[in-house]
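hey m, so remember when u said the tokens were messed up on ur end? i reran from scratch. heres the input so u can diff it against urs
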Amino acid sequence: MRTIVTILVTFIVSTIGFSQNTILSSNPLTEHEINSIFTDSLKTKLEINYSVYRAYEYNDKGGKHFIVMTENKVKCDERKDCFDAIKVFCFLYKNGQYDLEWNLTDFILPKGNEVSEEYSISIWTKYFELNDHDNDGFIDPIIVYGTFAMNGTSDGRIKILVYHKGKKSAIRHQNGTLDFERNTQVDESYYQLPKVIQDNVQLIMKNITEDENGIFPYNWKNDMENQKLNFDEN
């Protein structure tokens, strides 16, 4: 009898573990899937008015979600493709309906800005993540995007956004070719995130630096350990 009970408990635990693994999933949509799902009529209904750059489907305890990344293309001389604005949407798909959970909009700074002359903005999908870092059954999207200015990304801006339990926390960074031009601002809510998420964001920042897409202030790791909200090279 004890053997039977042991086998039954093992089966139940294994089944629960398996079902938890199948709950969490994410994958990028192909161009064909994007066009099949997000038809012109649906995009109009959902107010998706820029070109779709990438789209992702993910599943967690909250259900099925779609993240749609869009960019507004403009003419420019500096790059092959330039965009003056981006919009990202996150929809919960349930019972045939797409309900907006959150969205973000950003754009290049207007010409004549005293900080830098930006000419393009783009979503850096290389650093985009759909993971459940804190193992609570809900995926926490991390989105990174940046702008290009006179010296490419060297004097553009970078934003890192974390969506956790329906709330957004942001890190905003102004790049610069000179030390004194660089500045990083961190939302107070960021430091309330689980440490495992903060550690992963720091890894992303490290990768951005190694890829030469940004230079954060010299003591940025120490500043973040001390939960500073604003830091630079001074």
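this time it looks ok to me. The helical segments are 2-23, 31-37, 40-45, 195-210, 220-225. if urs says something different then somethings off w ur setup not the seq
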